[in-house]
Amino acid sequence: MIDWLYEKTGVMKSYGREDREYNVTDLFICRKKKMFRDAGYKQVITVDNALRGRVIGQLVHKGMSVLLEEDGWDTGMRLEKKVGDYLIIGKPDAVKDGVVLEIKFQRYFKEVGDVHILQTGVYLNMLGLKRGIILYVAPNAFEEVYIDREVSDDDILWFIEHPVSPFSKWECEYCGYRVYCNTPL
Ligand code: SF4
Prior knowledge:
- By secondary structure, the protein is of the alpha/beta class.
- It has helices spanning 2-9, 31-38, 48-70, 114-127, 153-161, and strands at residues 21-23, 79-83, 86-90, 94-96, 99-105, 131-138, 141-147.
- The strands form 2 sheets. The protein has a 4-stranded mixed beta sheet. The chain has a 3-stranded mixed beta sheet with strand order 1-3-2, covered by helices on one side.
- The N and C termini lie far apart (33 Å).
- Iron/sulfur cluster (SF4) is lined by residues 30, 32-33, 36, 165-166, 171-172, 175, 177-178, 181, 183.
């Protein structure tokens, strides 16, 4: 059943994108990671609890989706927007009454992540909305953060055209592509 759980939650799935296609999440992750993933490299997760954390995160999202849908939230929205020469693709967790909601499961909540604020800001831009909520779900805390500023098209282009590897300092430790990468930890 454990393999089934990994399979069902899709935590090891690698899917490619064209060069000029970016998921909203791709904008704020290590660019090398996106390159490995888009080229079809298979992930190798060496930190066991990182994988379990991903599985639990997926289960939290799926459970929350059921509850949110009961209350009229749209949890299946797929967005596309052309920004410059790039196609941005996004799947916000939930949208209702002019509010976009992002759910973030964490093993331990310490602080609000810049990456999460930026992602939510891109969704506000793509949806033409002004109100976003990031809901953190962690064993040590439930936190909600209100976001009222979109990330503009110019800023999206800036992030695409100024790639960094890694984007966040913790990324390498949990990265499924570390075995192929020469960036020192
Ligand atoms: S190991 Fe670090 S630098 Fe290399 S692909 Fe992964 S996150 Fe990026």
